[in-house]
């Protein structure tokens, strides 16, 4: 069993009354994690994917909920985003039943967060859970084992089912991307042209590591700019992709309002475009390496309570830096190179403009130092 980093964080929050919210993509192991942490027969499990549970919890009163919960000291509501008025239900559970600890999971931040933020103000702890991280796998195996598997992971990614079923990676990833990728979006949003949404995801998959133009995407996919913006926002809130904005402090030659878009899992990205070529044969190994590093860094910071503002940097002269972290009063600039013999080039104009900086070229010989940097 692979120990998940978030498990200790959850255990540490069991000592108070606040509701625990766990957000993350479908199939990343939220339910498995909770089943391993809470093995007591006194734990009551409720699944928002079940229609009767949705009906049970949608418009409850405190008296009714007390009867439903009974004497259980812990209640876990899985896929809580599917339950109407879930924020109010969680508030009633928190306020009305003494000595009850409530945990809710959700695979759609746009649904669950919108429903719980106001009712649960001051009453919740919120965590993000991602596909398995390289740090979790190193703890499970060893650094040597994971280093040997690095090229394999760059193709097939980090979903638990993929990692636990070697030899079935393509079949599992195709099922994940076809069956689960758009489930929450299509359930709640009025998507009149789902094939256009799929075409948009494919277009984004081909453009990782590049600046994304919404105008160009609109022309490619055949949608207007407003719909493109809406779809990308939904994809981000469903934990499929995320945006990286450009860094600028109002220097005249820096690009403003630009963005890159990456996938939360490189295996899903490769499945979307049906590219299973090994790392040594890939023309897109540079962007794939970049996507992998940024996501792994994001996971590490999320699990270790590290906070920074993240960007890329580019100016009108087309000089670029792959990744920027702005924290502790210092600009940390990173160039990502798959070829360990190549060194990153850091623009003199950038170094002059931001004298309080640290520079690092990240390659397969030192990537863990970058990912786990505090």
Q: Any overview of this molecule?
A:
This protein is α/β, with parallel strands linked by helices. The protein folds into two domains: about 120 residues, P-loop containing nucleotide triphosphate hydrolases (Rossmann fold, 3-Layer(aba) Sandwich); about 170 residues, no CATH class. It is built from 19 helices and eleven strands. The strands form three sheets. Strands 2-3-4-1-5 form a five-stranded parallel beta sheet, with helices on both faces. A four-stranded mixed beta sheet has the order 8-9-10-11. Helix 9 crosses helix 16, helix 11 crosses helix 16 and helix 14 crosses helix 15. The radius of gyration is 22 Å and the shape is globular. The mean pLDDT is about 90.
What is the radius of gyration? 22 Å
N→C terminal distance: 27 Å
Q: How many structural domains does the protein architecture include?
A: 2
* Total beta strands: 11
H and E order: HEHEHHEHEHEHHHHHHHHHEEHHEEEHEH
- Percent strand: 15-25%
Average pLDDT: 90
Task: Quickly count the helices.
Answer: 19
Q: If strands are numbered along the chain, what order do they take across the biggest sheet?
A: 2-3-4-1-5
Structural class: alpha/beta
Summarize the amount of helix as a percent range: 40-55%
Q: Name the shape in a single word.
A: globular
Poorly predicted spans: none
Q: How does the major sheet shape up?
A: 5 strands, parallel
């Amino acid at each position: 069993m692979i120990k998940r980093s978030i498990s200790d964080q959850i255990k540490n929050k069991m000592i108070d009354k606040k509701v625990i919210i766990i957000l993350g993509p479908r199939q990343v192991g939220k339910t498995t994690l909770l089943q391993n942490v809470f093995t007591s027969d006194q734990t009551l499990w409720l699944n928002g994917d079940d229609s009767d549970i949705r009906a049970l919890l949608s418009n409850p009163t405190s008296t009714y909920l007390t009867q439903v919960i009974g004497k259980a000291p812990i209640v876990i509501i899985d896929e809580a985003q599917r339950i109407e008025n879930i924020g109010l239900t969680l508030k009633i559970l928190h306020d009305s039943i003494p000595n009850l600890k409530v945990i809710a999971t959700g695979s759609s931040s746009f649904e669950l967060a919108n429903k719980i933020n106001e009712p649960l103000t001051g009453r919740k702890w919120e965590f993000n859970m991602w596909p398995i991280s390289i740090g979790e796998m190193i703890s499970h195996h060893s650094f040597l084992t994971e280093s040997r598997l690095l090229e394999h992971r760059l193709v097939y990614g980090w979903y638990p089912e993929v990692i636990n079923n070697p030899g079935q990676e393509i079949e599992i990833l195709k099922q994940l991307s076809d069956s689960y990728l758009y489930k929450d979006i299509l359930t709640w949003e009025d998507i009149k042209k789902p094939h256009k949404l799929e075409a948009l995801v494919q277009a984004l998959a081909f453009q990782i590591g590049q600046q994304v133009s919404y105008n160009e995407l609109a022309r490619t996919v055949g949608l207007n700019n407003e719909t493109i913006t809406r779809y990308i926002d939904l994809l981000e809130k469903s934990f499929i992709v995320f945006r990286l904005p450009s860094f600028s402090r109002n220097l005249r030659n820096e690009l403003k309002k630009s963005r890159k878009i990456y996938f939360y899992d490189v295996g899903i990205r490769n499945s979307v475009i049906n590219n299973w070529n090994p790392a040594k044969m890939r023309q897109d190994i540079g962007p794939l390496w970049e996507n992998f590093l940024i996501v792994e860094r994001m996971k590490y910071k999320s699990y270790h309570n590290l906070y920074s503002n993240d960007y890329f940097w580019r100016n009108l002269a087309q000089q670029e830096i792959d990744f920027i972290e702005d924290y502790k009063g210092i600009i940390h600039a990173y160039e990502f190179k798959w070829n360990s013999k190549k060194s990153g080039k850091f623009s003199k104009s950038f170094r002059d403009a931001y004298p309080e900086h640290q520079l690092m070229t990240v390659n397969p010989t030192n990537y863990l130092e970058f990912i786990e940097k505090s």
